[in-house]
Design goal:
single chain, 1269 residues, seven-stranded mixed beta sheet, OB_HELZ2, NA-bd_OB-fold, DNA2/NAM7_AAA_11, RNB domain-containing protein
Length: 1269
Amino acid sequence: MAGLFHDLKLAEGFFTHILIDEASQMLECEALLALSLAGPNTRVALAGDHMQMGPQLFSVDDHRRSDCTLLTRLFHYYQGQKCDAAQKSRIIFSQNYRSTKEIVDFVSTHFYVGKNDVIEASGNVPAPPNDHALRFHHVRGECHLDTLAVILTAVQTRDSLKESNLPGLPLFNDARVLNTAMTRAQSQVTVVGDAAALCCFGKCSRFWQSFINHCISNNSVEPHHYTKGFFEQDVEETARFQRVEDVDESNIICDSVLRELRDEYEQMKTEYSSDEESLDYKVNFTHQRLGKSLKVSNDRENLMELCEKQPEFFKKGKFVKESYDRGYVVPFHKPTKHINIQGKSKMGKAFTGDEVVINTIVKQSVSVVGIIKENQAARQLVCFLEEEDHSKRRPATSGKFVRRVMTPFNKSATKITILLLKDRRNFLPIWEQTSGSWTIKRSCHVNAVRNEVFLVQVIGWKEGCYHPLGKITDVYPKRGPFNDQLWLLKEEFEVKDSTLETYEDLSDKDEYSAKRQNITNAITFTVDPEGAKDLDDAISIRDIGNHYELGIHITDVASYVSPGDELDRSAEERGSTHYLGEEPIHMFPKKLSTHRFSLLPHQDRRAVSLMFKVEKETHRILEDPKLQLSTIRSQMQFTYEQAEDVITQRYREPPTFSTVEDCVTVGYHFAKAQRKLRLGNEWVYYQCDDDRLPGRRKAHQMIEEISVLFNSYAAKYLWDYNHTRYYTPLRCQSSPDSERLETFKEKCGELIPLSFSVQQRVNPEEVTLPNPKSTEHFPILEAVWNDIQSALRENDTDKLVDIVAADDIHPMLQPLIYEFQRCCSKAYFIRSNSSPEARLGHYSLRLNPYTQASSPIRRYIDLVLQRLLHSFICNVGHQYSRTEITDLCHQLDPNAKKAKQLEQKAQQVFYAVSTKQQSAPKLAFVVSADLEEECFKVSFPFNRNIFPLSLSVILRELQLEDQPIFSPEENTLTLKWKKRIYAANEMLIHQELSRMSDRGQRIEIPLTVWTAVIEAVQTENFDQAKSLLMNANPQKPDRVVVPKASSPPPFQHYADILLQLLPGDTIQVQMTSEEKRGSDMPVIQLVHIKPKFEICVQHVHNPISCYTHYANGPTKTHYNDTKQYIQIWKPMCKMESAANAVEDSDSIIIENLEVNFTQQYKEILTGKFFLHEKWIRDWVIECYLDQCLLCIRKRGLKFAIPLQHSALVDPKEFTWVAHGVTTKEEKKKTGIEVEFNISHLPMESIPECVYLKNTLYTVEIIPKLLPDM
């Protein structure tokens, strides 16, 4: 308002009085603007409470932030002056007319006493009827109040406070905020929070103790059992963690510098993250029989003595850390057993591989007592440097060092503290060991190696300290040694290179040779991915008259590898083969996996075989199959693509058995018949992924069903066999929770009949096909419809059925699949007959029982199953106990989960790296749109290997004009933009935008036709389905058509753009990469709203990375000179300037603007564009064009290189994006020429058209609201 008065150019002294209200919350610069309106005779009054909330400043320390308002400074200035004018200019009002007496008395006592200005309650505000004005509700976690009006919510627990920034939590740290909040109330203040957390953290802890004691004394605390004694005990327990670390003399470092590091480290305060776990690892136990107390330490002799004297309580073993707060110990006396340890403090200072002593007195609270022998290899960790939070106050220390934290890539490992010299805090010392002593070999500036990877050696871990102390011994580039792109992933997921790569001691002796049958004369083949060498399954077909014999053969690894030998232990430790790139990390030595064990063509190989007798005409199994040991010889190794072509060419002809190609087709028919028997009407549905695209996956379907069949019979035979009935690892999955399923049916009931995958899962008798209205349509992607037409032309019925029944690729069904998957339970391993859960079977596969036994080269559990199958086939015992199998099953689920996460992340990394060379446009399916989550979620069903979960598009990053509107009745989310969009040519851009469709490339067919197609497919009336689809008469979705006006429309600055989203819609996005924990990960870059309007969410999400860089230096209380001040503050100002400019979203978009780029140096791209004077005038461009941010986009570009993981439905053109900052504006005769530098290129390769003259771009100009300095 004061600025507006200035613009009026009023006469000096125009105002006789100027009143500034709430001056305690005003920045000085804001106050000065109003004061500049005063003349010599103007009376100025600043009104406000200096003890209440003030503005937050970042240029001073936390405790000084609220003291820098003009009101506060004047108040204290007048207090110190003795003249009458000063005393009369300081007027204190001590009556409160707003709040009831109890509130005023409490506030006065705790915020104003001692300052001679006690507040009085003068408003006669009544207290709450039958209640107290001050109430406290103790919650330890989430708040579940229903009807109370909560004035102050302080729901931070003692756990969350360990990770929170206390200066950013004003209710814990700023008394002025508390004063302000409490005095807003009239009759009641209710506080909800964790009492112990409030009283043990932050500067306001004493106030909170008084408040809670006041409420307890007045009996106004909930729950009622929270008495004074309970409160004091709770606070005392939590306060234990606020202690200074003790000195630990057990580790002596010879080097003087490292000794000083250790001494400084012992003086630093500890940060804790758990309120329930003490980090004092010295344990006292009272041995009842000896009648004395025994104190336990980490002394080896004492630990060994404990184990000898009390073996029932104290045990030795090897420690394995599974996560930061979970691990287990393998006891030496029983190496097949795992003793679980839960809690960080219970694991003590142990690292994986340490030999430890554990206390098992309380079985539910097993803990590590001490370490007998350290595993030094585990104390050398690959880490990244954790960024400092400069908003946190540094711990006070008078020593020579400051602390930094190194975070291991291995998520189960503890963080490590390193210490840096205070006067060289920006330099990281790199240590080396020579002649038994450590010296600094070099130092690296933090900025130079900020994004590198460090090798850190742990040098000690003292009692009571949360993190160990370490030193950096090496620095690696992110690609790692030997240019291995995946080495960081291996480090993160603890994948070690095998030590048995040169294993040569494997014997060819076959103890089961007498029982092994030779079937090398049968036509046998394998089908695997291209380039595969570890071939573990094969199929044989043999014509025997009226029927044929089909064999499923699994390579007999168990006949080579004995339980407990070196090869077996190595395989068990690895758990599975990892497929991370072109070269797998094999579970067994590579030579064994790809040669001796592999079912290579024209080589005799041992196998465990399941032999079926099958009727030729119906492919029905005639009798129970026989499980046997065999010798086989494969005639042909097919790739999936080769087998697909063979099946597609031959499957419509009567089966023959003459050639291996004939037998591949027979195998397909057999698998298809078994799938129908297993799944009923659901047999037509297969889930999509990157390798199995609808219409081109007959070979995949064959091999998948063959493997499932082998596994199910293996489980059945072992379940029924006496020797293995209680020893078989089973793969189980329970059915969905009934309540979740009912909720799902209420939410998605209308779509269930349209789904092949879900329809049969939710009481099929309840499901009836809908009677749709004639106006309703079913959307199909144009590329998918083209595939359907192709299948019709080729008369490829199985391809047609596969595409029609692929729910994943139909947009309308995506929300249904998404919600149903959320209902489903996770599969798990469990020992057979060990509990009721072991008898549930596998819900998704519809099999009971079920196991995994078809891949012994690649999965250790399959090798164990194969040994049990040997026991069944040869009728002999096996070497496993029930406990061993139970423990193995417990290991399998987390190991399998980790292996799956590793392979998925590896694919994501490779995909993200590829987007650096070529941005990747994709078609996304909207699966949910809900305001509560402040986002809408999209999935990519054609790329489930890369995107197994849905991605969120955050609504605030779309820069909407107004709040989104959600309609529960129509389940739609309406998004609205109001953007300044102009065109540098004659195109009427606003009219163009209104005409464009935002539905993407799809067609619609009547829903009546589609439901009829579903019914025809389910009844296998495929001719009827074909006829319906050939006569479907597909239509393009209606486009918004704006009638052409007879005269040009009036000029408009703003374009109103609407987008209605509902689950099942499609939307085009473009992917790029973003670094997360040292790895490139795929993220959404562009969201295309219209063909000529998109939002760059990349620069909205991370404006600092796109337009500047992060500030590295912390602020100081005192600066040596202005140069140092600018050096520290200029990067921060640039960050704030960029963030504020983007957040304001007041950008100007110019279409078809000519931009000329120049490559100045190898890594520097500059450019310029020209704005005509008429444009500047007509478009009202009033910003400083030399202080703007730019997002420059070029649409419609063809791919320069083949795009990896591009699906059939994905767009065939991409948009090139560059982010820049303007540097100069030069006025010419006809306009202004603007020069700029490119600050960020998401694509490393630059398209050739960028360097061509007269190339037109979309340029988004983002004016800066604040100068850089």
